[in-house]
Protein 1
Amino acid sequence: MREEFNLLFADRKALDMLADLIVKYGIKGRRVHDTAIVSIMLAKGISDIVTHNVNDFKYFNDLTIHSI
């Protein structure tokens, strides 16, 4: 089943983007975890996310959010 997924990991670009997003959106506390996901996505050129937790990502203007 793992073959069906591409795993993405943080690299320097994602870490730099994480820092930028934290400042840009005033991220604090538990929202840092969602911001880390967004930073990896954006660093890899991914702007769409499918989630049950739309509210967790609604702060990020850079994303297109799809609810399931």
Note: The chain has one domain: 2-67.
Protein 2
Amino acid sequence: MTDAQLVREALQGGDGAYEQLVRRWSPRVMAVCHARLGRADCVEDLTQESLLRALRSLASLSEPEKFGPWVCGIATRVCLDWLKSRRRGDVEFSALSDQQPSWPAKESGNDVDRLEEIDRLMSEVEKLPLPHREVLMLYYYDDLTYAQLGEVLNVSAATINARLTQARQMLRQRLGATQGDHRQP
């Protein structure tokens, strides 16, 4: 079923139609929120807030076939609202700990090394400029084509290609500098 069909069905009170839209679009909304904020600790809450606002405003969507870009725009506004609010200064107690998360005891040294590499990579991704971070996260979170990314972000596929290329290059440089070698991310 297309997004437009699901939107129309949801507006008519169809059971499960909006749930299907949420399942389809929540990874992209999550990627937008993560890219906008650069903070993983808030992403789930802001994704839920974005999807709730979209549900409440669904009747205002004039072009149901553009549900995806519309809900991603709502997510962007939710993130901007959050950044403007006092909540941005609030940090959960667990985020203040300098300790690493406790991993299952069965992990081998290779697993720990891999987790450290992922942490380093995500740390550097979160430092990228917003347009690069956003396209990179959407691309890898949801495995979208350049054309789909262009539609979601309202830019051309060529711009998507350029941003991805630049983001990857920045990561290679930063990770090579922090690792002291030239391994590819």
Note: Helices lie at 3-11, 17-37, 43-57, 67-84, 109-125, 130-142, 146-153, 157-179.
Protein 3
Amino acid sequence: MMNLRVRQTVAVARFELKRFLLARRWIGVYVLALAPVLLMYARTQIRGGNDSLLNPSQGFATVF
């Protein structure tokens, strides 16, 4: 009986999480959350790739 309840709970949680993460209204939030990562990647590619990797906090501060 307990095993059935655990499987049902996991199934419902998986369904709800998938529904929540794939909702269209969250796409903008995901893009905004990914923006700093993309900015840091672009900065390392433009500058040769190794200055921000030596001191990531300084590079992150420079971007913002």
Note: The mean pLDDT is 79.
Protein 4
Amino acid sequence: MTTRIVEAAAYEMITDNEHFQTLWDYMETDRRRFLFFLIDRYGVGPDRVNVELLESKFDEYGVIRNRQESLGDDLDFLRELEVIELNKSALLPTYQIGIPLMAHWLRKHKDWEDLQRRAIREGKDAAV
């Protein structure tokens, strides 16, 4: 098996994968999808993706959280789906994408700004 074969298979999975779309649908809310997007987006940067960072990003982007459901509940839900992982090896626990190919699929098929608008709208609707 060559690197070229592996890369071709990965590209095919990223291009057309019903399983990733199904997992996306199972996330159920745009708030959880936005959270997944945040973990992907900031997981490659210098910041540690922990609860505090995610809460500050929700505030920064204007996504209102339903006070009856904590961000921790959403993180637990995504962990149950096995689309994110909690890394406890560092001093502070951090979150990361659990399926790296799904992160590539996400960037190829989903629009960050559209999802942000949906999450903002969903938060406002829930607050009413």
Note: The longest strand covers residues 84-87.
